[in-house]
Amino acid sequence: xxxxxxxxxxxxxxxxxxxxxxxxxxxxxxxxxxxxxxxxxxxxxxxxxxxxxxxxxxxxxxxxxxxxxxxxxxxxxxxxxxxxxxxxxxxxxxxxxxxxxxxxxxxxxxxxxxxxxxxxxxxxxxxxxxxxxxxxxxxxxxxxxxxxxxxxxxxxxxxxxxxxxxxxxxxxxxxxxxxxxxxxxxxxxxxxxxxxxxxxxxxxxxxxxxxxxxxxxxxxxxxxxxxxxxxxxxxxxxxxxxxxxxxxxxxxxxxxxxxxxxxxxxxxxxxxxxxxxxxxxxxxxxxxxxxxxxxxxxxxxxxxxxxxxxxxxxxxxxxxxxxxxxxxxxxxxxxxxxxxxxxxxxxxxxxxxxxxxxxxxxxxxxxxxxxxxxxxxxxxxxxxxxxxxxxxxxxxxxxxxxxxxxxxxxxxxxxxxxxxxxxxxxxxxxxxxxxxxxxxxxxxxxxxxxxxxxxxxxxxxxxxxxxxxxxxxxxxxxx
Length: 479
Fold this sequence. Notes:
The protein is mainly beta. Helix content is about 10%, strand content about 25%.
């Protein structure tokens, strides 16, 4: 019995020395470990020690950002993200081609690391199980490869927030399984390839913040599953394509702002009853806003600013709007719409140069507590802003320049979050109090203020044009 036991023990010991590293549960597969450590060696700076747990000889499945398949302890995901609240939370370096050793990898998530540079990583073509690529807010550059369509197993591709140049490759049409395609905030040029219409599973398409031009193609009849469409901040021209009307059932976010689109706002947009956000700002739209907008009962964010739109503006039937910007069109609203005043959730109201003629004391919104941004500049609003501003606990920015506001500046209570205050070109009187010093951006020029200005770091343009202000940065006060 002893001989048999000893022989069995020797066999077991011999087998255990021949087993791969992951079999003992303490360490990871040799390919996974070498691939991950090669990635770490390509990182030249890690100020907040994001990779501090990546130590050779330890179980890589416990390393920060590394996910493993439970059954065989192979690495299936790599997810590293910088902290947007911490400016030092980033990585400096390049992506090692040896990440191609992670043959079981199905998800690569490198987000907000800010300083990962280099070209599009070719090793991605060597990962047969890869389904999700999110390399966002880094510094990858060069062109998106022409053969990007070879990654036809992908279900999501996001390269947004990098420095890619050139055109969108037509082979992208081969990514027919993709539900999210996000190429926004790069330097891409050219037009939108019509072949994108083949991506019938798309729910999220983002090409915003590039230099794309030409007409927006009629491709959307085939993309009826879209929930989010972001094309803002490009150089698109022409009209809103008719095929966008086919998205009316599902689309929640339509962002076309900051382009050179023209013509009338199409009536069919009033049929988008699921629409949460509509941004048509900074274009060249003309004519009236369609009456059908009254059907947009679920709209929370509406931005039509900086166009050539004219009266009348339709009455909306929204239950509660979060942000509204109608500024700098050719409206003569006369008053702030009642459907705005009744909203219990509004945080941003921008109606600059909208032909409003009210006494601000008479405006009684149902909720002021949550306001973050208010811009009523360039109207004919009279009265006092005290009643409104002293009720806004979260106010960050108030712009009321070029009106007829008349009140004692000393009676204004400055909330802790207020960063921008513009009351220039009004009838405001009284003294400049010490509380203005904590504001980042101030303008009280061309009013009727008087007295010594408290010590500050503002320029003279902030205070000029008043009755008798003195002290730095203006002339010294007379003794």
